[in-house]
Structure formats: structure tokens, C-alpha cells
Design brief:
Number of domains: 2
Helix content: 25-40%
Number of strands: 17
Strand content: 15-25%
CATH architecture of the largest domain: Alpha-Beta Barrel
Strand order of the largest sheet: 9-10-8-7-6-5-4-1-11
Largest sheet: 9 strands, mixed
Distance between the termini: 34 Å
CATH topology of the largest domain: TIM Barrel
CATH superfamily of the largest domain: Aldolase class I
Length: 386
């Protein structure tokens, strides 16, 4: 069975750069170069089309940055090109990230008509004080309004991004954010622990009033209980979904599927017909990306291109699959990596001995509660030896 193929498209501009964000995003200082960047994306897409190996695109994720700065017309042109150059599956899931404070075109109906089937709204919190602390440009009212507009436009598959362990946040406030989200009744909720990433403003100078580890854990447990009671299934470390509404695009990442990466700073992973797994990355700076887009992949000066050896394939497979509460199987490991199972089993045995993994039937395992709580330690058992 062919390995599924997804497509990630990166839109690198934001209105402002949030202090916690370590993604490839750049504050928009002049007029948005919509047409020139769209032309570059389509040229880049044509280059990557040969990597599809005859497979159609099963999911598309339009991420950023802030993709909703681009018009519905630009998104439609892009998706038409994807279908023409590679082919979209009839049931393709097509997600666009949107910032409640940057729906420039105010036209959710236009995005829906363009072919987008799923929205991911970067709400982060429904508390105005915390939104200010996070450097967000929207307030709680704008977040509620954006959700209502999306529903009115016909979107029946919406994710809300939330964060917890925010500066000055209490357990009750974290739960209150979840309660507001539950009142809106989205199909999917992602809830992330705020982290101080190197290279970010928060990484260089963390806020002084961050919750400690115990308080953060209390927030997580209380929020998880609320979400579970409301019928949201926790299927990944930070992801909760109603029945049948798991994010198919992210599942493809976590199950070690293939994906093309188009746009400034986008990453791709492709398995060739001979079983070789290769990764590549496009130049992160928008101007550099646009200047080289259109060159053949074989000669284009990519930011990175590498073949993944067997030991690293084991680690990458486990790094992703261990995020899933359903775990992994030997069959899935063999299908997605082509690596001898003997390279996997020492780590599995060590994880079981430490209480971090448990068998789930024959030749399948899933992380325990302890394994999920100490996920870094569990994943570290599969690191290649130096």
C-alpha cells in the first residue's frame, strides 16, 4: 500500500511577531506581495510534483505565519494548481490557519468557496489580559466573532488552538478558557503548554510570573478532564477531537507519512520507489525563496536536503508515533520505514522495563500515562547511538 502523501504550504508573514513564536514568520512591514509570492508557490509546487510518485494529495495544510492575510482568490488559485500539477484526493482535507485578528478579507465564505474544508483558529486564550501578555492582536470578543463567522460561512470542521501555563494564569483561568471553547463546540481543540523557545523574545527574557511545574500539571489535568467529559477524545499529546474529527493532516505526520513542503522555510519528507527516505527544506527568508523558486529540485539551492539512514528513521518514526495515544505497530513501522525490526526492539524493551510503554495486542504498543508525561525520556530511548 503506498505511503500517503500530504502537502504543507507556508505563508511567512504576520501582522506582528508573537514573543513566544519560533516558527518561520516575519512581521509584514509593507504591502503584502500576494501575487509574486503566489507565483513563487506555484513554481515551487511544479518542482515538487515529480516527488509525488503518482500519488494524489490526501491532505493540505496552509500554515504560517498568517495564511488568512492572503485573499480567498489566491487560495483558490493555489488549490487549482495543486489539483492540476499533482491531483487532490476526492475527500482531501484542506486546512487553513487563521488569526482572529487578521482576517483581512473578512470573507470566510470566500475561503470555503475556494475549497478550504477545515479552519484552525489561533485563539490561544479567551482572557484579554492573557492575550495581551502573549502579544496577540485580537481580543476574546474577536475570537468569538471569528468562530461565529466561520460557522455562518458553512465551515463544519473547525479547530481552536489554546495555550496554558500562561504568565500569571491560574488553574481556574485555564479551565475557563476550555469552558468557553466547549460552549462554542468546535470539532477539534488543540491545547499546548506555553514554552520558552530559544531565539524568541520569551526565550531571551521569560516572563517573571510563569506558573511552576506543579501548577502547570494541575492545569493540564483539570483541562483534560473537562475536555473528556464533554466528549473530546485525546488522541495525541495536545490534540482532542470529536468522533471522526481527528486532524488527518497531522495524523499523517505522526504516523510517519510523506509530505511535500512548498513555500518559504517549508520542510518535506518523501519516500522514493527504492525505499529511500529523504528530507528537504526550502529557504526560510521569503525574498531568497522567491528568487530561487522555479529551479528544478535537482539543482535548486535548497536550505537542506538529506537522506535518512536506518537508525535515524527508527528515531523519527518513534519521535512522531509516540505522540499518539494509540501507539504503533511493527507492521506500521515496517511499512513506513523499511527498516529491520531488530533496530527497533531494544528501545521497545527498555521502554517497557521502565513502565513507559505497554503492549496493545500482538506486535503493537502504546505509551503509558507515565510515558506520555515523560515523553522526552521515552523518545530518547530511540535516539541513535553517538
Amino acid at each position: 500500500m503506498p505511503i500517503p502523501l500530504a502537502l504543507y504550504v507556508h505563508f511567512p508573514w504576520c501582522v506582528t511577531k508573537c514573543p513566544y513564536c519560533d516558527f518561520n514568520s516575519h512581521p509584514l512591514q509593507n504591502e503584502l506581495p500576494e501575487q509574486s509570492y503566489l507565483d513563487a508557490l506555484i513554481s515551487d509546487l511544479r518542482n515538487d510534483a515529480k516527488l509525488a510518485g503518482g500519488r494524489r494529495i490526501s491532505t493540505v495544510f496552509l500554515g504560517g505565519g498568517t495564511p488568512s492575510l492572503f485573499s480567498p482568490g489566491a487560495m483558490q488559485t493555489l488549490l487549482v494548481a495543486v489539483d492540476a500539477e499533482i491531483g487532490l484526493a476526492n475527500d482531501a482535507e484542506i486546512t487553513m490557519e487563521a488569526n482572529p485578528g487578521a482576517i483581512e478579507h473578512g470573507d470566510f465564505a470566500g475561503y470555503r468557496a475556494a475549497g478550504i474544508t477545515r479552519l484552525s483558529l489561533g485563539v490561544q486564550s479567551f482572557c484579554d489580559t492573557h492575550l495581551v501578555a502573549l502579544g496577540r492582536i485580537h481580543n476574546a470578543a474577536a475570537a468569538r466573532s471569528a468562530f461565529a463567522q466561520a460557522r455562518a460561512a458553512g465551515f463544519d470542521n473547525i479547530n481552536l488552538d489554546l495555550m496554558y501555563a500562561l504568565p500569571g494564569q491560574t488553574v481556574a483561568e485555564a479551565v475557563a478558557d476550555v469552558d468557553v471553547a466547549l460552549d462554542l463546540a468546535p470539532e477539534h481543540i488543540s491545547q499546548y503548554h506555553l514554552t520558552m523557545e530559544p531565539g524568541t523574545r520569551f526565550g531571551r527574557k521569560p516572563p517573571e510570573n510563569l506558573p511552576d511545574e506543579d501548577a502547570s500539571w494541575q492545569m493540564f489535568e483539570a483541562c483534560q478532564q473537562r475536555l473528556s467529559a464533554a466528549g473530546y477524545d485525546r488522541y495525541e499529546v495536545s490534540a482532542y477531537a470529536r468522533d471522526g474529527r481527528r486532524c488527518r493532516h497531522n495524523l499523517n505526520y505522526w504516523q510517519y507519512g510523506d509530505y511535500l513542503g512548498v513555500g518559504a522555510g517549508a520542510h518535506g519528507k518523501v519516500t522514493s520507489a527504492d525505499g529511500a527516505i529523504r528530507r528537504y527544506a526550502k529557504h526560510a527568508k521569503p525574498a531568497k525563496f522567491q528568487s530561487v523558486a522555479g529551479n528544478p529540485v535537482s539543482s535548486q539551492p535548497l536550505a537542506m536536503r538529506a537522506e535518512i539512514n536506518a537508525e535515524n528513521a527508527v528515531f523519527e518514526f518513534m519521535l512522531n508515533n509516540l505522540r499518539l495515544l494509540d501507539g504503533f505497530s511493527l507492521e506500521g513501522f515496517s511499512e513506513r520505514t523499511g527498516v529491520a525490526q531488530g533496530l527497533l526492539m531494544p528501545g521497545v524493551t527498555a521502554a517497557i522495563d521502565k513502565g513507559l510503554l505497554v503492549a496493545d495486542g500482538a506486535n503493537a504498543w502504546q505509551p503509558t500515562e507515565l510515558g506520555l508525561r515523560f515523553l522526552d525520556d521515552l523518545q530518547g530511548l530511540f535516539l541513535p547511538e553517538a
